[in-house]
Specification:
The complex is a heterodimer. Chain A is an all-alpha fold. Chain A has a single domain, classed as MetI-like (MetI-like fold, Orthogonal Bundle), CATH 1.10.3720. In chain A, about 80% of the residues lie in helices and about 0% in strands. By secondary structure, chain B is of the alpha/beta class. Chain B has one domain (about 15-255): P-loop containing nucleotide triphosphate hydrolases (Rossmann fold, 3-Layer(aba) Sandwich), CATH 3.40.50. Chain B is built from 9 helices and 10 strands. Chain B is globular. In chain B, about 50% of the residues are buried.
């Protein structure tokens, strides 16, 4: 019986692969840009001017304190009102990147703050400039603390990407919604959707665990 | 802060570090109280005093790890805290050895030593590494260049930290209780290195209670209590004939053991 139902879903396989592809592409782009921007924000939050630091802090709090669905609607429906034309894909990328950058900013800030004050003083005393201190002394040590939750954040990112289906992007979740209208067994459809997400996320979960073990063993040197 | 450095009397250029009526507060705590002190080139000054007397703060002001709030502090002819003074540049002339070593744990002994020469002095890597190995040999750790700090004992780490400062060829070396975090059997290996540095003519200010070290190399001992310099004099004089009640009480406590 299960077999029959699976057979009835076989016709949706290409659509599902497209959906999975969209989920992966969205997540990957938001991962790369979110990481770059998140590190930038985190470093500026600590090392930037007071005004900049306050603005970043307020923005991060705002984004962390509002539902992602609301953010994505605001970006997709409000920005065009202001004259900024956006297709759903771009809106999805912007929303996901922004969300990730904010969470990664907090992870990076926590990592930087975990580096003992004496390390910064030693670097300061030897005449390293602000950015040399960050690059050579603080960040490499902060990475120990940053990496495990960073990879964890990537897992959350992939799952959060399902929200983009709300603005009509055909990602894995939306494929689920589309298929469920054509076949009798909705439970099985969403079970398979869940499997799709898990297949993408599980390697990352394993990586995060591996990193956590590595970090406690290393001399503060980060080796992947 | 108001005066500009051009008004410094030219005859004072033989002074490397000069405190003039320096004051500092941590909140309501008056941690440096009207400090006036000058250090000559090649002079070794030992600063001692009970804990909380402001001696660490005193030397941390010299390279700007702490800011002074009143008075003048001139180091290597540059006014500390003056916006016109490039503190980053000034710090390259001042080595600072910390009580807790503060070696970079993610870098090897050699990388710890070469980091600032390569990035600040722009010394070519090969040259910096050659110099670094020589310095490690000089502090008795010639074979440890590839060791991470976590693989070294406290005494070894502190010797690497001293080598790290020397690699910048500083004009002044500051030591903030360099042996206080060490097991007793490691103290002398660090002090021996410090004596060698002093004997090469380095200008040094050393916060320490190692009176043997003070006797061997210091020209002057400065005794601080409650943020003030209470007494200052040649080591023999200070140890055998302290002039104030407070220094007598302090010496009584540390020399009894």
């Amino acid at each position: 019986m299960i077999w029959q139902q699976l057979e009835s879903l076989a016709g949706s396989y290409p659509l599902a692969m497209r959906g999975l592809g969209m989920t992966v592409v969205l997540s990957l782009i938001a991962l790369v840009f979110g990481t770059l921007i998140g590190f930038g924000l985190g470093i500026l939050r600590i090392g930037g001017s007071r005004v900049l630091s306050t603005v970043i802090g307020a923005w991060v709090d705002l984004i962390r304190g509002t539902p992602f669905l609301v953010q994505i609607f605001l970006i997709f429906f409000i920005l065009p009102e202001l004259g900024i034309k956006l297709d759903a894909f771009t809106a999805g990328i912007i929303a996901l990147t922004n969300l990730n950058a904010c969470f990664i900013c907090e992870i990076v800030v926590a990592g930087i703050q975990s580096v003992p004050k004496g390390q910064v003083e030693a670097a300061l005393a030897s005449g390293l400039s602000k950015w040399q201190r960050m690059r050579q002394v603080v960040l490499p040590q902060a990475m120990r603390v940053v990496l495990p939750p960073l990879v964890g954040q990537y897992v959350l990112l992939i799952k959060d990407s399902s929200v983009v289906s709300a603005i009509g992007l055909t990602d894995l979740t939306r494929v689920g919604w589309l298929v469920v209208q054509r076949v009798p067994n909705g439970l099985l459809v969403f079970f398979l959707v869940g499997v799709g997400y898990f297949v993408v996320c599980y390697p990352l979960i394993l990586l995060a665990r591996r990193l956590e073990k590595r970090m406690s063993a290393a001399h503060g040197e980060v080796q992947l | 802060m108001a005066r500009c450095s051009c008004e410094l009397p030219s005859g004072r250029f033989s002074v490397v570090i000069e405190f003039q009526g320096v004051n500092k507060w941590f909140g309501s705590l008056h941690v440096l109280n009207d400090i006036t002190l000058s250090v000559q080139p090649r002079e070794v000054v030992v600063v001692c005093g009970p804990s909380g007397s402001g001696k660490s703060t005193l030397i941390r002001c010299i390279n700007g790890l702490e800011q002074i709030q009143k008075g003048d502090l001139v180091v290597d002819e540059k006014r500390v805290g003056d916006p016109a003074t490039n503190m980053t540049l000034l710090r390259t002339e001042i080595g600072f050895v910390f009580q807790s070593f503060n070696l970079y744990p993610h870098k090897t002994a050699l990388e710890n030593i070469t980091l600032a020469p390569i990035h600040v002095r722009k010394t070519p890597r090969a040259q910096a590494e050659k110099d670094g190995r020589e310095l490690l040999a000089k502090v008795g750790l010639g074979d440890k260049f590839n060791a991470y700090p976590s693989q070294l004992s406290g005494g070894q780490q502190q010797r690497v930290a001293i080598a790290r400062c020397l690699a910048m060829r500083p004009k002044i070396m500051l030591f903030d209780e360099p042996t206080s975090a060490l097991d007793p059997e490691m103290i002398s290996e660090v002090l021996d290195v410090m004596v060698a540095v002093a004997e090469e003519g380095m200008t040094m200010m050393v916060v320490t209670h190692e009176m043997g070290f003070a006797r061997r190399v210091a020209q002057r001992v400065v005794f601080m209590d409650q943020g003030s310099i209470v007494e200052s004099g040649a080591p023999e004089e200070f140890f055998s004939n302290p002039k104030t009640e407070r220094s007598k009480a302090f010496l009584g406590k540390i020399l009894r053991h």
